[in-house]
Design a protein that fits this description.
Length: 501
C-alpha cells in the first residue's frame, strides 16, 4: 500500500536525476543522489541534499548495482526510490528488491512490468485487450520463421523479447540472410538483456512512431495525455519528438488513447508509462510499452501544463489523480547527443570547455552539462534536450531553429547542427515523417555553410570570453562579426574552428 515519504533517492544520473530533484523539492522532499566515480563533479551530486558514491564508472558496478543503491538508501534514511529512465528503471527485480527493503518504488509494480516489459507477453496481453499488434510469431525457431516469412513476405523484423533500443533487432530482406540474423539477434539480446529469446514480426515499410502518455493511480483512475510523434530516429534511437502529431486527428487520437488505456488497465498499471504504436495507412499497431518515464516527457508537460515527475511522486504516495487541463499549442524536443553526425554518428568524448545554451521565452533546456564536465564513454550519449513551445507547430519549429542556433558546446562533437538541419528541412516542415526519415533524407549529412557561419559566431563568443570581453556584436546567422579594435577577431592570431577533413 502506498504511503507518504519524506526522503527520495534518485537511482540515476545526468539530466533525469536533476529533473527528479527539482520536482521532489517542489513537493518538499529531501533528496539523495547516487554517483559513480566518473560523476563526482556532476551537477546532480551537488544539487541533492545528500549524495553517496556507489561504485566505479562501469554501469554494472554502479548504476546497475542494486545492492549498492539499496545500501545508499539505508545509510541515508531514504524511504523511496525513483529510478529515472534507463539503467534499472524497467527491471522487475529492482522494483521487488526496493519493496522487500521496505521502501517505496516510484513506478509501476514488478508484476505490471513483467506483463508488458516482455514483448512477447505484451503481445499476448494486447490480444486480450483487443489492441492490434503487427502480424508476427512468438518464436525465433528457424523453420517456424521461414514458414511465417513465406506467408507474409519479406522483409521481416527479428526482435529481442526482453529489451529495446534497437538491440537484438534485425531486418531480414531475403531468405538466405535469415539464419545469420536469428543467431546474431539472439546473441546480442543475451549480451544486452541476459535473455536471448527473440520473436519475429512483419516489417512495416514506412511507419510513423506514435506514443501515448498514460498515468494511473492506486484508486483505479487511468488517464491518457495525448500523443507524441517520435518518428525521427536513427538505429531505433529517437532524435526528435513532438506533440501533437500532424498525422493524428481527433478521431484517431481517441482510438489510440482508448487502446492505451485498455492495455494499461489490463495489467493494473499504476504510475507513469508510455504505450508506443506504429502507424501506417491509418492503421495502428502496438509496438511496446515503456513502464517508466520517457526521455521525451517534457513535450507532454508543456502542452498539458503539468509536472509528470511530481505526478509520479504523488501517485507513489497514494494520492488520487486530479483533472488535467486541455492541451494547447505544439511542442518539439531535440536530443543533443555526444556524437559526430558527419561521420556516421561516431561516439564523441572530451572536456566541455565552453557552454552556451538557449534561454528565451518558450524554450526549455534539460541538461546536466556545465563547463569543465568530462564526457566519457561509460554512459548514454545524451547531453541535453532542447524543448520549444509554440501556439502552432510552425511557431514551435521556428523557435526550435533559433534555439539550436544558440547552442555552443565547445570541446566535444555534438549533434545540434544536424538536428537544426532536420528541423529546417522542407520534409519536416510539411510533416512528411516516418521512422526512415533520417535514412531517406540525411544519410550522408555534412556541415553546411549555415552551420559554419553559426560556428564562427560561437567561436567569437568563446574568444571574447577568453579576453574578458562580454560584448561581441554579430549580425545573426549570416556569420558577420563586428571587427572592432577590441574584438577577439582582431586580438587573436589565426586558428581553425575544426580540422578540415
Amino acid at each position: 500500500m502506498a504511503r507518504a515519504f519524506k526522503k527520495l533517492l534518485i537511482a540515476n544520473r545526468g539530466e533525469i536525476a536533476r529533473r527528479v530533484i527539482r520536482s521532489a523539492r517542489l513537493l518538499g522532499l529531501k533528496t539523495v543522489a547516487v554517483f559513480s566515480e566518473a560523476d563526482r563533479k556532476s551537477p546532480h551530486v551537488m544539487e541533492a541534499d545528500e549524495a553517496r558514491l556507489i561504485g566505479p564508472p562501469a554501469p554494472a558496478e554502479s548504476y546497475l548495482n542494486i545492492d549498492a543503491i539499496l545500501q545508499a538508501a539505508t545509510e541515508t534514511g531514504a524511504d523511496a526510490i525513483h529510478p529515472g529512465y534507463g539503467f534499472l528503471s524497467e527491471r522487475p527485480a529492482f522494483a521487488r528488491a526496493v519493496e522487500r527493503a521496505g521502501l517505496i518504488f516510484v513506478g509501476p509494480s514488478a508484476a505490471a512490468m513483467e506483463a508488458i516489459g516482455d514483448k512477447v507477453a505484451a503481445r499476448r496481453l494486447a490480444a486480450e485487450c483487443q489492441v492490434a499488434v503487427v502480424p508476427g510469431i512468438e518464436t525465433g525457431e528457424s523453420s517456424s520463421v521461414r514458414t511465417f516469412a513465406k506467408k507474409v513476405g519479406y522483409p521481416i523484423l527479428v526482435k529481442a523479447a526482453a529489451g529495446g533500443g534497437g538491440r537484438g533487432m534485425r531486418v531480414v530482406d531475403q531468405a538466405d540472410a535469415l539464419e545469420a540474423a536469428l543467431e546474431s539477434a539472439s546473441r546480442e539480446a543475451q549480451a544486452a538483456f541476459g535473455d536471448g529469446r527473440i520473436f519475429v514480426e512483419k516489417y512495416l515499410a514506412r511507419p510513423r512512431h506514435i506514443e501515448v502518455q498514460v498515468l494511473g493511480d492506486s484508486h483505479g483512475k487511468l488517464v491518457a495525455l495525448g500523443e507524441r510523434e517520435c518518428s525521427i530516429q536513427r538505429r531505433h534511437q529517437k532524435l526528435i519528438e513532438e506533440s501533437p502529431s500532424v498525422a493524428v486527428d481527433e478521431k484517431l487520437r481517441g482510438w489510440m488513447c482508448d487502446a492505451a488505456i485498455r492495455l494499461a488497465r489490463g495489467c493494473a498499471y499504476q504510475n507513469a508509462g508510455t504505450v508506443e504504436f506504429l502507424l501506417q495507412d491509418d492503421e495502428f499497431y502496438l509496438l511496446e510499452v515503456n513502464a517508466r518515464l520517457q526521455v521525451e516527457h517534457p513535450v507532454t508537460e508543456i502542452r498539458f501544463e503539468c509536472d509528470l515527475v511530481a505526478e509520479q511522486l504523488k501517485i507513489a504516495m497514494g494520492e488520487r489523480l486530479g483533472d488535467f487541463d486541455a492541451p494547447r499549442g505544439a511542442a518539439i524536443e531535440c536530443r543533443i547527443t555526444a556524437e559526430d553526425a558527419e561521420h556516421d554518428f561516431r561516439p564523441a568524448v572530451g572536456l566541455v570547455s565552453y557552454l552556451h545554451l538557449p534561454n528565451a521565452p518558450g524554450v526549455r533546456v534539460d541538461t546536466f552539462l556545465r563547463e569543465g564536465i568530462e564526457i566519457a564513454a561509460h554512459y548514454d550519449s545524451l547531453l541535453a534536450k532542447v524543448i520549444c513551445y509554440g501556439a502552432s507547430r510552425e511557431e514551435a519549429r521556428r523557435r526550435t531553429l533559433l534555439a539550436l542556433d544558440e547552442v555552443v558546446i565547445a570541446g566535444i562533437h555534438h549533434t545540434a547542427a544536424f538536428l537544426r538541419d532536420v528541423i529546417a528541412s522542407e520534409q519536416f516542415r510539411r510533416g512528411e515523417l516516418s521512422t526512415h526519415f533520417v535514412d531517406d533524407h540525411f544519410k550522408k549529412w555534412h556541415y553546411s555553410a549555415s552551420n559554419e557561419n553559426a560556428a564562427l559566431i560561437a567561436a567569437a563568443l568563446i574568444a571574447s570570453r577568453a579576453l574578458g570581453n562580454n560584448e561581441v556584436t554579430t549580425a545573426g546567422t549570416n556569420g558577420k562579426v563586428d571587427r572592432r579594435e577590441d574584438s577577439p577577431w582582431t586580438s587573436l592570431g589565426g586558428f581553425e574552428l575544426w580540422q578540415r577533413r
